Amino acid sequence: MKELIIKGSLTLICTLVMGVIGANAQEASSSHYEGITKTLTFDRMIPPHGLEVTYDKTVHIIFPTSISYVDLGSPNLIAGKADGAENVIRVKATVKNFNAETNLSVITEDGSFYTFNVKYADEPLMLNIEMKDFIHDGSAVNRPNNAMEIYLKELGSEPPKLVRMIIQSIHRGNKRDIRDIGCKRFGVQYLLKGIYTHNNLLYFHTEIKNESNVPFDVDFITFKIVDKKIAKRTAIQEQVILPLRAYNYATVIAGKKTESTVFTMDKFTILQNKELVVELNEKEGGRHQSFVIKSSDLIDAKIINELKIK
Prior knowledge:
By secondary structure, the chain is an alpha+beta fold. The chain is 15% helix and 37% strand. The protein has helices at 2-30, 160-173, 295-299; strands spanning 49-53, 59-62, 67-72, 77-81, 88-93, 102-108, 113-120, 128-130, 182-185, 188-198, 201-210, 216-227, 239-241, 245-247, 252-253, 257-266, 274-282, 289-293, 302-303. It is globular, with a radius of gyration of 30 Å. 18% of the residues are buried.
């Protein structure tokens, strides 16, 4: 009788153990993908920032460059670019006291990706937030944990961060590789300092020098391809080239001051019977400037092999 009880107990224990193993196996199988799957490790994760929002106040987030994309994880949030600013978004809660945590993702034009875990708070700790430039974060790997190389359609296969570094290198170098293209009128000088190329993009380095005492307010700058014979007489049959980027685009040049700008454009060439006219127009003034770039000038664009980044 005693032996029977022991055997019965062992049977019961085995049954319980097999039941637990079976349950764990079923749970494990349900938590795995079908087929061969590699588990994502934490070194692949982009750590999110914590963000608090509320219903009665607006949270503003300032990014280093213009915003290209915004995604909200829940209808409990509303967000949009601040009026008149390309690098600032405003975020609010659409309902009071929502419980579930949600998220917010942002891509900027320099190819950086930012992510936030968002919670509701009656009084958010921070209402105005500035995200720093993450090109160099000082870490051993010299790149941020919360940014990735996002490729933008307008720049093709060129990484946005590389484009930005090239622009900054040209601007900081401030070389004058071209000395015969420019215009000077009414105490204002508008120069083309250099044309550079890397992969399928062109970079135009221009400079505005105001030698007068009266500030020069920039209305607009245009790049347009026109026929040589009519370039100075009419605006018909012209093709406007729109820059993809404009680094240090100064809108006001104070008296006795100089400002330079680097424009980035898709690669293009000019037919022999055409030329590229660059026009600088003064706002509510008459000190307009213009100069002409020939096909040979474009073909002789300097290839960028080295970058000097400080």
